[in-house]
Amino acid sequence: MIDFEEELKKFHPSLEVENAEEAIFGQDLTDMADLLIKMVEKTKKEEE
Hints:
The longest helix is centred in the C-terminal third of the chain and has 16 residues, at 32-47. By secondary structure, this protein is mainly alpha-helical. It has helices at 4-10, 15-25, 32-47.
């Protein structure tokens, strides 16, 4: 049977995951909500 407490003691986070996290959060990623906000703002400006 697996001793989870013993296995957790052996665990070390992967450096690749940490590097990937920094790269992902370091970028300015645009999502659908951002695109919709820009479209609404553009439409409002055109109506004025």
